[in-house]
Automatic annotation (TrEMBL):
Ranges for domain GAF: 25-156
Pfam families: GAF_2
The organism of origin for this protein: Kriegella aquimaris
First and last residue of the signal peptide: none
Protein name: GAF domain-containing protein
Entry superkingdom: Bacteria
Amino acid sequence: MNRTAKSNQDAIFSLLEEKPVNWQSVLAEVIASFDCTTGTIHFLEGGTQLLKLQAHQGIPEFLLPKLAIIPIGKGMAGIAAERREPVEMCNLQTDSSGVARPAAKETKVEGSIAVPMLLDDTLFGVLGIAKPVPYDFTDEESTDLLSIGAAISRVIKKG
């Protein structure tokens, strides 16, 4: 990890120590750290198989109702939650795998990744970020995002 990415990650972890945590600020810092423009944080609603939108940036207003609640197994976030591993697309606009929901293409993003927020193999939610250009996230970036997801999970667990 380069020095800038490390300092950005430190900034993210500092934001997670605030009481209460400003999830919008956390998401904005994650998006900036990975040179992205768009992102979401979904928390797993206790006792359900539903991911509820906690914070968002760069999402068109008309899409928010479609992103507010995501069933596990549906769309990139839902599949990342179900598989408990990152799900990424180099270009969401040209994807034909069926992983991305049709409405996702309306975000106009291309390179995107959704990572499960896990702690001790327990799912707490999903973090997703995207760029407006085709992009393959590196293994190091995926690992960093999983670490951030674990840190977010620790905060959620503490309540």
